[in-house]
Write a structure and sequence with these properties.
This protein is mostly helical. 53% of the residues lie in helices and 0% in strands. Helix 4 runs antiparallel to helix 5. Bound molecules: protoporphyrin IX containing FE. The site of protoporphyrin IX containing FE has 15 residues, from helix 2 and helix 4.
Length: 72
């Protein structure tokens, strides 16, 4: 079962964290958990990150984490 610390946090680049700091902190467990579905849908529709879309397996890992109840 994926965890935030081991599997999800490393998916976000420093560039992503910086760019999105106006909205939420992608390095923070509570903030990613609170915005998880919004984050997922922007990555899934390819609008974020705007410079480098995620490969399907990375998106699937995020979905797996969300569906597993978002362990820390
Ligand atoms: C609720 C989800 C999100 C919303 C509403 C959102 C919205 C935005 C907005 C409004 C900007 C600024 C202007 C623009 O480029 O459109 C932006 C920039 C950016 N976002 Fe997001 N974003 C979301 C999730 C994410 C995620 C999950 C990532 C990374 C995995 C990400 C990476 C970026 C990057 C790298 C930029 C900078 C683009 C650039 O100027 O080169 N965003 N986002």
């Amino acid at each position: 079962m994926p965890s935030f610390a081991a599997d999800i946090r490393p998916l976000f680049r420093d560039r992503d964290i910086e760019a999105m700091s106006f909205a939420f902190d992608l390095s923070d467990y509570d903030q990613v958990k609170a915005n998880a579905e919004g984050i997922y849908s922007r990555i899934a529709d390819g609008s974020m990150p705007c410079d480098e879309p995620w490969p399907p397996e990375r998106l699937a890992l995020l979905r797996q984490w969300i569906d597993a109840g978002m362990p820390a």
